[in-house]
Write a structure and sequence with these properties.
six-stranded parallel beta sheet, ER, 374 residues, zinc, seven-stranded mixed beta sheet, Rossmann fold, 26% strand, Quinone Oxidoreductase, Chain A, domain 1, alpha/beta
């Protein structure tokens, strides 16, 4: 059993505080990971306010990079000393999605069997089965994706973000939206996920990339990541503006990275006939969208939701890291600030105010981490 410092929320709407927790040694199929970095994601705040479940107390954090420090019986995916990105899609290989060759839809993903606890024995619910705002965490070995090659210590903050939000945005365009070279892509909402969708459109070869937001600073950030046109939806109708930029037709692919009824309707209307739209912004429970069914039929195309960007970590994380090394994907640009474990609660406030793409917690372990060389 390991005593470590971690960020915990004990009840709905209570602040995220640093507590001592107990982390077990890994059992069969599990891995113990020394956390190097962990990004502050909107999903962590959803846990804090009870938007995910009422299974308090929560151990927050999930966008993480770390080093495997111990493995349990039967683990073959990773070895002690491996540098890894953590993921929340450890595929089972046996469910109907996995059997039909679509493991990115795995319906039975798994986490560590043992529970981490407070010092009084109270079991913690780990955010997305990870719980990485902690010096160490316990996960299923399949939640670890090995980082091949070399990275400097300061680069872990960037690659760790692939564990959730950045991959969700990249995958919404590359996987779910299946962007083709030369296509037009519009992204509504330019927070961290939306900006990643812009970067994905550029990576996928789109030649007209339209960023839509109410905030001019966010739009300028989107331009840095590849947007060719900017629309402030507070000053002009985004649907009409997108159509004007695409010959009056609408975009081939529109991504809603907000997840409210208004932006979903805008995405629906702003796509070309037979165009595609993808919802990657997470709606609040009970959000309703209404549309005449004849319009859904008449416009054709497809309406999809992106689950984790339809990501398969074993396939996608190494590819994205390679693009990062090649200079095709500016992961460093998503790191707005580097903070300590005790700064998570203030980071939530900055995130809600739209002042950061990502705050990233850097653990003391990072200072002692050598370059990874495999």
């Amino acid at each position: 059993m390991h005593e470590v410092q971690a960020v915990v929320v004990k009840a709905r709407d209570e602040p995220a505080v640093v507590e001592t927790i107990l982390v077990p040694d890994p059992g069969p199929g599990e891995a113990l990971v020394d956390i190097l970095t962990c990004g502050v994601c909107q999903t962590d705040h959803h846990y804090q306010v009870g938007g995910v479940s009422d299974d308090f107390p929560f151990l927050l954090g999930h966008e993480a990079a770390g080093v495997v420090s111990a493995i349990g019986e039967g683990v073959t995916e990773v070895q002690v000393g491996d540098h890894v990105i953590l993921n929340w899609r450890a595929v089972c290989g046996e469910c109907r999605a996995c059997r039909r060759g679509e493991p990115w839809y795995c319906f039975a993903t798994h986490n560590a069997t043992q529970k981490m606890t407070l010092t009084d024995g109270t079991e913690l619910t780990a955010a997305l089965g990870i719980g990485a705002f902690a010096e160490k965490t316990l996960v299923a070995a399949g939640q670890c994706t090995k980082i091949e090659g070399e990275l400097e210590p300061e680069q872990f903050a960037a690659v760790g973000l692939l564990g959730c939000g950045i991959t969700a945005g990249l995958g919404a365009v590359l996987n779910t939206g299946a962007v083709k070279r030369g296509e037009s892509v519009a992204v509504i909402g330019c927070g961290g996920v939306g900006t990643a969708a812009v970067a994905g459109a550029r990576l996928g070869g789109a030649t007209r990339i339209i960023a839509v937001d109410l905030d001019d600073e966010k739009l300028e950030t989107a331009r840095r990541f590849g947007a060719t046109h900017l629309i402030n939806s507070g000053r002009q109708d985004p649907v009409l503006a997108i159509q004007e930029l695409t010959g009056g037709n609408g975009a081939d692919l529109v991504v809603d990275a907000v997840g409210i009824a208004k932006t979903f309707q805008q995405a629906f209307e702003a796509r070309d006939l037979a165009g595609r739209m993808v919802l990657v912004g997470v709606p609040d429970p009970g959000t309703v969208w209404e549309a005449p069914l004849d319009q859904v039929f008449g416009r054709g195309g497809s309406i999809k939701s992106a689950w984790y960007g339809d990501c398969l970590p074993a396939r996608d994380f190494p590819m994205f890291v390679d693009h990062y090394r090649l200079g095709n994907l500016d992961l460093d640009g998503f790191v707005s600030e580097r903070i300590a474990l005790g700064d998570v609660e203030p980071a939530f406030a900055k995130m809600r105010e739209g002042r950061v793409l990502r705050s990233v917690v850097e653990m003391d372990a990072l200072k002692n981490s050598a370059r990874t060389a495999v």
